[in-house]
């Protein structure tokens, strides 16, 4: 089968190309940047280029995007061209070429301010039913691209699956305060409780989404590591997160102490992957328990695929805040 991967020089795109080639797919890798995983160099905002790349393709994995860290360095128009216009051209040419399924990588950032609880409110339970309130051009354009996918499924019969992925980047956190307070691995491990997932699991979600696309037609799914928390934990997570974590993992404090790690004092949201596990048959491997066991054994926390891909970064330059620009 011939498949197309957009953003093939990027983090998820490279991981997808690696895995698809291992599975003996014929892969067309598309990106504006050259790499060993990109066969076609050009912009998805160029309709003629997209048309050229689509010949014979049966499945599109659309991972190319401008990300949140680009908000301070790119114009709103650039976000529209890449995230909306690029998605539109891919959908149009997919229909014209007879593509059988389209998997779009979106982001939990589309929820935006809907994930921000008020003072004294419980943590937010983030499912597909939460109404998005995007807080920047990144969220706005990704949400618009999701709607385009739904439009093309409804009007043209193109099976489209939208995966709203939580954070899986290997780079340091984009918030300076968190970078200065927590060791990088400590911070990421904490996030597996409520807002992070592993690259290997993201790739697997893409593959099962493609398998289910024709049957489902259209669907939006939160893709994140399985959280142990329940709705009844939401109030306590705002005031004493460590106590709640201890309820589910009585051994975590000793493991953390041995690594000189610490837990967050507060957790303000919980991403829920139940719908993706139920409807896609997706079974993420990496969760907080898995990480604890790896820590106990002194093993590497990342998947082999994540180690192979490494960190890509978002910019070629260095900023006053280190790896991230300040808007």
Commentary on this structure:
The protein has a single domain (2-175, 197-227, 272-309), classed as 3-Layer(aba) Sandwich (Rossmann fold). It is 42% helix and 13% strand. The protein is built from 13 helices and nine strands. The longest helix has 22 residues, at 76-97. The protein is globular, with a radius of gyration of 20 Å.
Please state the CA-atom Rg, rounded to the nearest Å.
20 Å
Read across the widest sheet, the strand sequence of neighbours is 3-2-1-4-5-7-8
**Name of the level-1 CATH class:** Alpha Beta
Mean pLDDT: 94
> Ranges with pLDDT <50 over ≥5 residues?
none
Q: What's the structural domain tally? A: 1
The end-to-end span amounts to: 43 Å
Please summarize the sheet with the most strands: 7 strands, parallel
The level of helicity is: 40-55%
Q: Quote the beta fraction.
A: 5-15%
Query: Can you tell me the CATH architecture?
Result: 3-Layer(aba) Sandwich
Q: Helix/strand/pairing class, anyone?
A: alpha/beta
Query: Which descriptor suits the 3D outline?
Result: globular
The count of helical stretches stands at 13
Compute the number of strand runs: 9
- Following the backbone from N to C, one meets helices and strands in this order, namely EHEEHEHEEHEHHHEHHHEHHH
Summarize the model shown:
The chain has one domain (2-175, 197-227, 272-309): Rossmann fold, CATH 3.40.50. Helix content is 42%, strand content 13%. The protein has 13 helices and nine strands.
């Amino acid at each position: 089968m011939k498949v197309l991967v957009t953003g093939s020089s990027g983090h998820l795109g490279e991981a997808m190309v690696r895995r698809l080639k291992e599975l003996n797919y014929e892969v067309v890798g598309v990106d504006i940047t050259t790499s060993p995983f990109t066969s076609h160099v050009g912009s998805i905002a160029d309709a003629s280029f997209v048309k050229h790349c689509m010949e014979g393709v049966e499945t599109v994995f659309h991972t190319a995007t401008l990300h949140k860290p680009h908000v301070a360095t790119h114009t709103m128009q650039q976000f529209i061209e890449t995230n909306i216009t690029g998605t539109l051209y891919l959908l149009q040419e997919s229909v014209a070429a007879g593509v059988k399924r389209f998997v779009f990588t979106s982001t939990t950032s589309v929820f935006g301010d809907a994930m921000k609880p008020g003072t004294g409110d419980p943590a937010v339970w983030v499912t597909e039913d939460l109404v998005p309130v995007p807080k920047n051009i990144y969220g706005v354009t990704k949400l618009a691209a999701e709607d385009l996918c739904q439009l093309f499924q409804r009007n043209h019969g193109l099976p489209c699956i939208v995966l709203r992925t939580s954070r899986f980047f290997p780079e340091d956190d984009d918030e300076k305060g968190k970078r200065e307070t927590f060791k990088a691995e400590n911070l990421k491990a904490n996030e597996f409780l409520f807002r992070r997932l592993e690259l290997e699991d993201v790739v697997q979600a893409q593959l099962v989404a493609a398998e289910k696309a024709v049957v489902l037609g259209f669907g939006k799914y939160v893709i994140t590591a399985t959280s142990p928390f329940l709705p009844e934990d939401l109030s306590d997570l705002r005031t004493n997160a460590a106590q709640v974590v201890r309820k589910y993992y009585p051994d975590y404090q000793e493991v953390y102490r041995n690594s000189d790690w610490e837990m967050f004092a507060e957790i303000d949201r919980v991403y829920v992957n139940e719908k993706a596990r139920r409807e896609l048959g997706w079974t993420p491997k990496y969760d907080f328990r898995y990480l604890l066991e790896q820590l106990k054994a002194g093993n590497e926390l990342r998947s082999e695929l994540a180690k192979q891909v490494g960190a890509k970064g978002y910019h070629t330059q260095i900023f006053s805040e280190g790896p991230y620009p300040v808007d």
